[in-house]
Amino acid sequence: MAHDEDQGADPPELDDDEDDDEDLALTSSLEPKSCTRKAVRGQLTSYADLLFTVQQRVCIFMLFVIGRRFRILRWDRAGVIVTKSIDYFEDWNPLCNFFWCISRLPDNKLGFDPTATRLFETNPEWEQMDTFATALESDVSSEPRPLEDGELELESEIEDAEGPGFVFDYVRQMFARSLKDPRWPRFKLRVPDSGKTRDYLVGKPTVYASGAIGRGTRGYVGLDVQTGRFVWLKDAWRASYDEMEKEGTIVERLNHAGITGVPTVICHGDVGRQRTATAAWWECKNLRGVKKKFEDDSTDAPAIATDSVHSFQLECPIRRHKHYRAVVAQVCINLKKFKTGRQLASIIYDCFETHRLAANLENNGILHRDITDDNIVIYPGVGMKDGCRQLLWRGILTDWEISKPIAVGVRPRARQPERTATFQFMSANLLNAVGPVSIPDELESFILIIIYYATRYLESNILHDTDVASFLDECFDCYTIDGDAILCGERKLSIVVLNSQSAHRHFTARLSMATSATELDIESFLREFLPAPEPTLPPPGESSYNPFSDLRDADNVSDQALSELFVAAINNHCLTAGSTASPYQPSSQKHPLGSSAALFRAEDSVIGTQPLEFDQAVSIEFHSHRRGIDPFEFKDSKAHARLAKPCKRLFERLSAIAELVFAVQHRVFHFMLFVVGRRFRLLRWDRAGVVFTQSIDYYEHPGVLSNVFRRLSRLTDEALGLDPSATRLLPADIDFLRMDVASLKNPTDIDDNTGSHAFLVGRPVFCANDLVGRGTRGYVALDCKTGGFVWLKDAWRASYVISGTEGDTLHKLNCAGVENVPTLQPLLPPDTHPPSSPFLTASSCTPCSSSQSSKKRKRVEESGFVEGSAYGPRASTKSDCPLRQHRHYRIAVYEVCMPLKEFQHGQQLLSIVLDCLRAHHQAATNPKTQLLHRYISGGNILIYPKVRRDEDGQNPSLVWSGILSDWELSKPVGVQEAASRATQAERMGTYQFMSVNLLTNITKPVEISDELESFFHVLVYYAIRYLHSNCKHVDSWVGNYFHTYAGPGRMLCCGQKSTTIEFTGQLRTRVLEGPLLFHSPMDFVLGTILKSLTAHYKVMQYEAMQASPPSPRPQRKPLREEPYVPVGFVPSTSKYKDHPQVAQWEAQWESETLMDRSPTPEDRELATKVADHEFMLGLLARQIWNSRWRIDDRMPKAQVSDGGTHANAKSRSPETPPQAAPASNKRQRTSGPGRNISLPAHLHTSARRTRSWARTLPIRRGAKT
């Protein structure tokens, strides 16, 4: 395989130590240094995986060439052996020697399996396979049914040891399908049989495990050359360690014991001496005392101990495998083909009975240890009941490869380096603790399989398909992380441990990228946003002058070449008078997908140097042509689905550039030119989203793009989106010097109540990361008139008729005397811009396309927008518009505060939160205000040093008090219109601190109990993050509690947070372990509040259930329906139907179902405590004076992590939006919610994906871990 020479592309990281073996380096202990390395390694692995699947291989040799260097790779099912990188130009002999050796090796030395013979059309076996693939009239239907007299004889009369004497129709159909694809080769495979061999003909495998490394199991419907019967042939690379029995040996023992629920073995055995060599090479290279010794084996594997049996080395991370084949008589049906719920239960019961019989074998009980849906299959069989013969679908329990004898009185020891099982159906106990598999673990796996298949295929009270996908995702694919350990997901735990299976959720969909982007045709875009002196747009193709003639082949050049040619065309033909196109060096390499350039004003360009990135007027972004790479082409084809991730990364890159411009410049909007090969789009970004044009070929239509440049070059700074109320200061300006002087410490600094409306600011102290949204920036500002410092907030507030401003709210709170809230600067108008100002986001106001009807356009004009303009003074909420409307807004307050994380000890943390709780109480109960904050989060609870005195006004002391800030989303108490007439188009809040109630029911109005729960979550976060506790893995705990969500593309809190609040009522260090303790009064505070919150949810859920009408029938059509059951139908196993213990269990279940689960009087009393503020105020005020507080209960700053979450990095603050996580896990999520981001927003719409800190295991369903 060849690869373009690229820095960092070589995936292996080689050790340059000359004392090491110079011939080999193993990638199993190597990790890529960059995404490029990882992508190349993944490409190499996929090639090896393809060859292993299609061909019959023992090993694969691969030549990997990068520029002038090469490596030789040897793949087998255990890993890959890699040589050092060699320059074949300087040292050509090794490469020539390699080619010389390869050209002279026989097939078996090249890695081909000598026991597999490839068939061609000229072989007689090829014709024999085609003949047997043709359906016959004698084929028996496999449909379950009563049998007529003489239709089928008893199995004992027509079946021998190798299967029935007839062929079921599905078996021949499966064999025919395996021959249908001409791309797949056909083989004759040789299988050992008690010292002899038997030959079987196979086509395409019916099942095959993906992945080059591992057991590589393939299952075939095979044709016995000798008997002409169809069989099931399993080809795999089994673990090769002592005490690991062959699967065929185990199943033969079960056959001899008379257990019918397992396959019937025909023959089996290891294939020659074929085994993996990678582990042996690793041990030779890394372990002392192990020497290389070649054998006469065809695999050239070095021997370590004996020829075939090895004890695994704990130090060796690579597993050993041996090639193995087994043939059984039964060709079975996949479990998902079951017909009815009764049939599903019968099939599972058959396998359960088989499991029981195997576990209770006299003196030799066997535990299966891998109960999964793939290992439960269906096989038709004849059953008798009172003389009624029926063809029934029976359950067969397969795949006994990792089964193990049940040890009595002896603790079993490990037989291989890692546990092998299917994550989705492993018991909660095994996922949370390392220990031997027991019978209860296996029974739990059976129950989980029933839950999965019943929920997915049968009718239930989960009404929608998306909710079914969400439920299955939560139960079977989600996990929690504790340090480096991957543990059971919260939903599975709640089902198994807390018995809350019925607590499924109904979800609200989230917005995709397309809902924050609006498309316009080019004419409409120019008319709306780029007014020009020319009255009309020049028709495409009229002018013979083409400034882009040198870009005819732009679809075939790289990003860099495209950028250079395009910039040269602009400058050489003077397309932008007064401006210059120039590349620049991006300040961030986060998205290195293409080349960046921009239009710069002449005064910002210096000849001979690249201009500064921060001075750009219009961005120009380039990307080489690739079909489907344009992120603004919303298509659903498979070709575009394969490019979903590159498109997403490209869109994130464009957003990041626009976000940077908004952050460093004072912008109302920003224009961007996006060029992909020979096509371009014009983009207009604002805080509501992006408006973009259709894709246009600028070579074929040069007049269109030339006209765009003419219009852009004639726009004023204000028309280009720069905020006219912000004046940029240069080093020569006097105000620039004033800022420098003012930043110096001055002991005489005081505040003054008089001030000017002009403020000087520098770099923002806080800057929201998301481009789309309020774009909040916070500055420590200098009042130009008084010289005092203030806090200046610059944001794009939601602009709706029924939304007030934060300044109005603070003015009301200040006048009412509410304590511990910011003090508004006097005389500062709430809105920076008057009502007639045009500074309103236009993305939500523009028509979606040129095809919009005039009637719809008229409604826009009637709602208050200026005719012929995309702007308007005020706007009401519009249910049919997914884009939010924003107005530029600034507010200044006296208090320049510290973030909450700066608290010094737990008692102080409680005091600060108590101050903010008092502010919340006063605002909600004061007759002059009666406001609910509606946005309680850690970022809005601040610290402000304040002088306090005793009751007599004496003994002044400086204390850190709490300030409850950011009242923008506040709303009058008791407003119950959220579901029908929301204040804003979307609910906003910080996901991590929102109540479970609001996250589950996103349209419900905010109540005091929701706000009190948010205060509780703030206390929990800052306590666990910064105080000493008995939690060993704080990062993982924070990630599991605050950052997990449930449902594909849905914003729900069904992780540890939901389980804690709704079900357990207890904070635990980890799943199934002890309580979380801080060994301070904080334990009593959190425990008492949590107890009341849990009772509140119990009462609330019960009252909702009582008030709701009966559940409607499911709106989704079930995949399995209950058909007519013939008279006399019986399950295949019914011996326990009348067992007295079963009747007792049924009675117990019915009694529990009918049990009164209504809240007790104690529950109702506890619930009332979080209905208002009095209880929490009294609790916190009393506990502040508790003598058990310690002044040193805060962890040192060196021990407090402040990065990412989970396995990727340290845990981040919930107020900080997550950065891109490494693509190491199965579910890499898109950017999660940050501060001030609206809910729901920005989640991946896939049915099985989550946020950027992944919480789902990196394994496929059904794969073995």
TrEMBL record:
InterPro entries: Kinase-like_dom_sf, Pkinase_fungal
Compositionally biased intervals (Low complexity): 843-853
Bias-annotated ranges (Acidic residues): 12-23
Gene3D superfamilies cross-referenced by the UniProt entry: Transferase(Phosphotransferase) domain 1
Fungal-type protein kinase domain location: 37-118, 194-452, 647-1021
Region (Disordered): 1-23, 842-864, 1197-1265
Protein name from the UniProt record: Fungal-type protein kinase domain-containing protein
Source organism of this protein record: Dichomitus squalens
Upper taxonomic lineage: Eukaryota, Fungi, Dikarya, Basidiomycota, Agaricomycotina
